[in-house]
Amino acid sequence: MANIKVDVYSDIACPWCYVGRQKFHIALEKIKTTYPDVQIETVWHPYMIDPETQINGEKYMDYNVRRWGGDGWTYELREAGQPVGANFGNWKIWPNTLLSHCLVTTILEKTKDPQKGDEAVGALFDAVYEKGENVSEASTVARIGKELFGIEESEWNTEERKQYVRQQDLMAKSDIGISGVPYFVINNKYVLEGAQSPNTFFNALKKVANV
Fold first, then answer.
1. What is the pTM of this model?
2. β-strand pairing of 190-193 with 183-186
3. Where are any strands of DSSP class E within the chain?
4. Which of 25, 80, 96, 159 has the fewest CB atoms within 10 Å, counting from its CB?
5. In the chain, where are the structural domains located?
6. What is the pLDDT, as a whole number, of residue 1?
7. How far apart are CA 142 and CA 49, in angstroms?
8. How far is Cα 54 from Cα 26, in angstroms, rounded to an integer?
């Protein structure tokens, strides 16, 4: 049996991270089917691409115009996402993701279960890109935390937790040197940057597992 740990640095306000997670999951399922003895643990870490995003989030087009003059760059993104189930069916808001990271890190800490953290990340991606929800708002994040994981808002929406997330974000950028996400680290040794193809993820995991 091979045990593999994958640390993923990612932001909910990163549509390519959403696509990357979808592709990574396809690779995980293929590994699970092909090599059932290989056990893979995925741990998600906070990264905030744009911490200066308005605290309540910004309208999709307003943000795109402000940053890039329009949303033409998303055409390639949407085309890449559709085959892997990232349809971007109702993307209305560019969120401030501080609270989302507070929820995910709290779930990881309290449950000690990386799978729950992964599920939380998936639920937040789905809320932003498929359901048109605003995860900048505490009420939205609180509903996801309570309904799916039984976590109360008082457990994650604290100044202490916010400071922890900011510190983790700074560490990823300054100590590790990450300048773009998604960023995958396999067994603290091998790095894959960006939304790689499912086959690239699969082959990397297979190589590390030595199968």
1. 0.97
2. antiparallel
3. 3-10, 39-46, 58-59, 93-94, 183-186, 190-193
4. 159
5. 2-209
6. 58
7. 22
8. 34
